[in-house]
UniProtKB/TrEMBL annotation:
Region named Disordered: 496-515, 728-794
TM ranges: 696-716
Alphabetic keyword roster: Membrane, Signal, Transmembrane, Transmembrane helix
Signal peptide: 1-45
Organism: Streptomyces galilaeus
The protein, known as: DUF6049 family protein
Highest taxon in the source lineage: Bacteria
Ranges of biased composition (kind: Polar residues): 772-785
KW Transmembrane helix (keyword) present: yes
Length: 794
C-alpha cells in the first residue's frame, strides 16, 4: 500500500515477484527499527540522502522504435521493439519491460494530453498485458542501452470496440538504494483499433509537397543555349539517391496523394538536364549532375500520371508577406499574376500533365482578410487554410469538413491542424518517427469516430519536409490508406464537397495573425527592390532585338525574390535581390556612349561625332541619341537647342553619328549626349563635354571685310578699263572708213609695228588685274550630317 501511495498509477506486479519483494522488506525491518530510534537530529541529517534517492525515479528512458503493425486487426501479432537506457547513477537490477494497456480515449484532446505526458511515470500506465509478454534484463548499468522486443497476439490484448487505446511500454526494476520493484521509465504510444469497416469512412486528402529553396540565379551565359547559372549545387544533393526530394518522390509515388508542386523546382531540375554552371564567388564551374536530374524528372513524370497535380504560382510566392508589406508598393500584385500565369505552362512542359492552378497556399495555412484578397487576386478561388487559423466557434461536437465558403466566391479548404502538424521536428530517430506515426493514426481514427456523418478532411504538412519527416509521413499515410476508416479523395473533390452548415466561415482579423509568422515575413524594402528591378528591366527590354533572352530569366528571377523559402533568411534574401539588380545593371551598361574630350570649333559650322557602343550579343534598336547644347545662344545643334537621331547597333559593334553645329559667338559651351528609349525614358548615363569656339574674333572679321572690299574695287576698275577700250576701238573704226591711208597706218599700228604698240603694251601692263582674279571661290565643304551607320567599327 505504501508503494502504491508513493507511485500513483502502479499496478500489482506478477505473483512470482511477490516473495522477492516480501523478503526485501523483512530484511530491511531491523534497519527500519534502528532508524526509528535515532535522535531527531540524525533524521534531519538523512533528508538530503532521501531527496537524492528520489531523483533516481524515472532515470531509465524507454524508446519505442517500432510498433508493427501500426493498425492491427484481428488475428495479428503486435510486435513492440525499442531501447531502454539507464540515465541514472545506480545499476538497475531485476529489470524487465512489459506492455500496459489503458482504457480507450474518447476525444482528440485526450490524445493530445496523453502525448504530452508520454514519459511521465507518475501518471497511470494502464494494466499489464500478460505476465509472459515481457523482456527481462539481469541488470542495467548506468549509461548503457539495451534493446528489447515483445510480441503479443492481438487477441490477448482483450480490446473492445473500435477506438484509440493508450499503450504503455514500461521498465520496472530495483536499485541498491530502493531494493523493491517499481516503474523506472515509461513511454506511451497509441494503438488504433478498428476491426470492422467504419460506417462512414472519412474522405482524406493528403497533400504531398515538392518544393525547394531558390537555386537558380538570373544570370545566363551569352551562348545560344543561354546556359543557366546556379547559386550552388545543393539541388543536385536533394534529387540524388537518398536526398530529400528523391525520398519524397520515391515514397510518394506509391501513395494516393495530391501532388503540390512549385513550377520553379521543375524548371531548375529541367535546366540541370543539360549544361549548367555553378557560381562560387568569382569562380564559375560546370555542373555535373545532368544524369541525376534527367532520372529524377523521368521518375516524377511516371509518378504523377493519373494523379492530381496542383501547381503553386512560380517560385511559391509568400502571400502573407505580399499582403502585409507588398501591396503598398506599385506593381507587386503584377508579379504574383505573372508567377501564376507561367505556372501551368511550366508544369505541362516538364511533366506533360495539366495541373490545377486555382489553389493558393499561405504559409502554415494562416489567413486574414488581406491574405485572402491577395491570394485570389491572381485568379485562385480556393485558399488552403488550417484549422488553428480558421478556428471553430460554433460549438460543433465534431471536426467539420474542410470546405468553407468565405465570401466573394472564394472557398477556404481548411486542413486539420493536428494531422498536418504531426510530422514536424526531428524525426531522424526511429522512436520519434514511430511516435509521430501512431499519434497521426490515432487522431485520424478519433476524428472518424466523432460522428456517423461522412466528412472530407485535408492533411497539409509542412512545405519542405526533411527526408526523415517524409519517411514518417509515408508510413502513416500508407497505414491510413490500408485501414478501415479512411478513403482517399483528391483536393478538387474535397474543395467541392458540401460544407457543414455549422462550420465557421469567418476569416480571422489581421490582429489574429500569429506574431511568430509575421516576424519571418519579407519586409517592404524587399518589394521596393523588386519594383526597382522590374522598372529597369522594362526600360531595358524595349531596346533589344530579342527581348526574350533577357525578359524570361530576369522575370523568373524576380518571381524567386518573392519566394516563401526566404522566410527567416533575411541576409540571403537581400543578397539574392542585390545580385539580380547588379547583373541587370551590368547588362544595361553594355550599351553606352563613348566618353568625349573637349572639342574646338574651327569655323562657323562643324559636325560633332558621337559614338554608341553595344557589347551585348544581340543588337539594339528603338534608341534615340539626343545632343543638347546647354548654351544655345552660343552654340546651336541643327539650328536648335538640341537634335536627335535614331540608333541601331548590331551585337558586339559600335556606330558613330554626326550632328551639325552652328557657332553664334566665341567662348565655351557644354554639350550633353544622352540615349533615350523611344518612349522618352533616359537610358544609361549621359556624356557631357565642352565645345570651345575660338575663330570669331574682331580682327578676323575686319580682315575678312577688308578682303571683300578690295575684291569689289578691283572688279570695278576692270569694268571701267574695258569700257574705255571699247570706246577707242569704235572711234578708230570710224576714222578708217573716211581715210584709206589712215586705215593703212592704223592697220600697221594695230599689228604692233607702230609707235603706239609699246604704249599699248605698257598700258596693258599697268592694269591692276591679279593672276588669281580669274579663279572662282570654292564652295564651303558640305557639313551636312552623315547617314546613321555611316561607319561601323568592330
Amino acid at each position: 500500500m505504501a508503494e502504491a501511495a508513493d507511485f500513483p498509477g502502479m499496478t500489482p506486479s506478477p505473483a512470482r515477484r511477490w516473495l522477492r519483494r516480501t523478503g526485501a522488506l523483512l530484511a530491511g525491518a531491523p534497519l527500519l527499527a534502528g532508524l526509528l530510534q535515532l535522535p531527531v537530529s540524525s533524521a534531519h541529517a538523512a533528508e538530503p540522502t532521501v531527496a537524492k534517492e528520489a531523483s533516481d525515479t524515472g532515470a531509465v528512458t524507454v524508446a519505442v522504435d517500432s510498433l508493427s503493425p501500426s493498425v492491427p486487426t484481428e488475428g495479428d501479432t503486435l510486435t513492440v521493439s525499442g531501447t531502454v537506457t539507464n540515465k541514472g547513477k545506480q545499476t538497475v537490477t531485476d529489470a524487465h519491460v512489459d506492455l500496459r494497456l489503458g482504457s480507450a480515449l474518447t476525444t482528440r484532446s485526450a490524445i493530445d494530453s496523453t502525448a504530452t505526458r508520454s514519459d511521465d511515470i507518475s501518471s497511470s500506465t494502464g494494466s499489464v498485458v500478460g505476465d509472459k509478454y515481457v523482456a527481462e534484463f539481469t541488470k542495467l548499468t548506468p549509461g548503457v542501452s539495451e534493446q528489447f522486443s515483445i510480441s503479443v497476439p492481438v487477441d490477448e490484448l482483450d480490446l473492445g470496440d473500435g477506438g484509440v487505446y493508450p499503450l504503455g511500454v514500461a521498465l520496472s526494476g530495483e536499485t541498491s538504494a530502493k531494493p523493491w520493484e517499481r516503474v523506472l521509465g515509461v513511454q506511451r504510444t497509441f494503438l488504433p483499433w478498428q476491426p470492422d469497416e467504419a460506417a462512414a469512412r472519412t474522405r482524406t486528402t493528403v497533400l504531398w509537397p515538392l518544393i525547394s529553396d531558390v537555386h537558380m540565379t538570373a544570370e545566363t551565359a551569352s551562348n545560344e543555349q543561354q546556359t543557366p547559372v546556379f547559386l550552388n549545387d545543393d539541388l543536385a544533393a536533394e534529387i540524388s539517391p537518398g536526398g530529400r526530394l528523391d525520398q519524397l518522390l520515391s515514397l510518394g509515388k506509391s501513395l494516393d496523394v495530391t501532388w503540390v508542386i512549385d513550377p520553379a523546382l521543375l524548371a531548375s531540375v529541367d535546366a540541370m538536364t543539360e549544361r549548367y554552371d555553378i557560381v562560387d564567388g568569382d569562380t564559375t564551374t560546370a555542373g555535373e549532375h545532368q544524369a541525376v536530374a534527367g532520372q529524377w524528372l523521368a521518375e516524377l513524370q511516371r509518378a504523377v500520371q493519373g494523379k492530381q497535380v496542383v501547381a503553386l504560382p512560380y517560385a511559391d510566392p509568400d502571400l502573407a508577406s505580399l499582403a502585409h508589406s507588398g501591396t503598398s508598393v506599385t506593381g507587386s500584385l503584377n508579379q504574383l499574376k505573372a508567377a501564376t500565369d507561367v505556372a501551368a505552362s511550366t508544369v505541362e512542359t516538364v511533366l506533360h500533365v495539366t495541373p490545377s492552378t486555382d489553389f493558393a497556399w499561405p504559409v502554415e495555412g494562416a489567413v486574414d482578410p488581406s491574405i485572402v484578397k491577395v491570394a485570389t487576386s491572381a485568379g485562385a478561388d480556393k485558399v488552403i487554410a488550417r484549422s488553428d487559423s480558421l478556428t471553430e466557434k460554433g460549438g460543433l461536437s465534431y471536426t467539420p469538413s474542410a470546405a468553407r465558403p468565405i465570401g466573394g466566391g472564394t472557398t477556404a479548404v481548411v486542413a486539420d491542424s493536428r494531422l498536418s502538424e504531426a510530422f514536424q521536428g526531428d524525426l531522424t530517430k526511429a522512436s520519434a518517427s514511430t511516435r509521430a506515426v501512431q499519434e497521426f493514426l490515432a487522431q485520424s481514427l478519433s476524428l472518424n469516430l466523432q460522428t456517423a456523418k461522412q466528412r472530407s478532411i485535408v492533411v497539409a504538412p509542412q512545405r519542405m519536409p526533411t527526408a526523415g519527416q517524409a519517411q514518417a509521413m509515408a508510413e502513416a499515410v500508407s497505414a491510413l490508406q490500408g485501414g478501415t476508416w479512411s478513403q482517399t479523395q483528391q483536393l478538387t473533390a474535397t474543395a467541392a464537397a458540401k460544407p457543414d452548415p455549422g462550420a465557421t466561415t469567418k476569416v480571422p482579423s489581421r490582429s489574429a495573425y500569429p506574431s511568430s509568422l509575421a516576424k519571418r515575413e519579407l519586409p517592404r524594402s524587399a518589394f521596393v527592390d523588386i519594383a526597382t528591378t522590374q522598372d529597369r528591366l522594362d526600360n531595358f527590354k524595349v531596346v533589344l532585338t530579342d527581348a526574350s533572352r533577357v525578359v524570361t530569366p530576369f522575370g523568373r528571377a524576380i518571381n524567386r525574390e518573392m519566394s516563401t523559402s526566404w522566410r527567416g533568411r533575411t541576409t540571403a534574401a537581400s543578397s539574392f535581390r542585390q545580385g539580380v539588380q547588379t547583373y541587370l545593371t551590368t547588362l544595361t551598361e553594355q550599351v553606352k556612349l563613348i566618353q568625349k574630350s573637349e572639342l574646338k570649333l574651327s569655323g562657323r559650322s562643324a559636325t560633332i561625332p558621337v559614338t554608341v557602343q553595344n557589347n551585348l550579343v544581340q543588337g539594339v534598336d528603338h534608341l534615340v541619341l539626343r545632343l543638347t547644347s546647354t548654351n544655345p545662344t552660343r552654340l546651336e545643334i541643327d539650328g536648335e537647342a538640341y537634335a536627335e537621331q535614331g540608333i541601331e547597333v548590331s551585337g558586339g559593334h559600335s556606330t558613330t553619328v554626326k550632328f551639325t553645329t552652328s557657332a553664334k559667338a566665341n567662348g565655351q559651351a557644354a554639350v550633353i549626349a544622352q540615349l533615350y528609349t523611344e518612349d522618352g525614358r533616359a537610358y544609361g548615363a549621359p556624356v557631357t563635354f565642352d565645345v570651345k569656339v575660338t575663330e570669331f574674333t574682331a580682327t578676323v572679321m575686319l580682315v575678312i571685310g577688308g578682303g571683300f572690299l578690295l575684291l569689289v574695287l578691283a572688279g570695278f576698275r576692270m569694268y571701267t578699263q574695258r569700257k574705255r577700250a571699247a570706246a577707242r576701238e569704235a572711234e578708230d573704226n570710224a576714222t578708217a572708213d573716211t581715210d584709206p591711208a589712215s586705215e593703212t597706218a592704223e592697220s600697221t599700228q594695230d599689228s604692233g609695228n607702230g609707235p603706239d604698240a609699246e604704249s599699248d603694251a605698257r598700258s596693258g601692263a599697268d592694269d591692276p588685274v591679279q593672276p588669281s582674279d580669274g579663279t572662282p571661290d570654292t564652295a564651303a565643304e558640305s557639313t551636312g550630317p552623315s547617314g546613321t551607320g555611316e561607319r561601323v567599327d568592330r
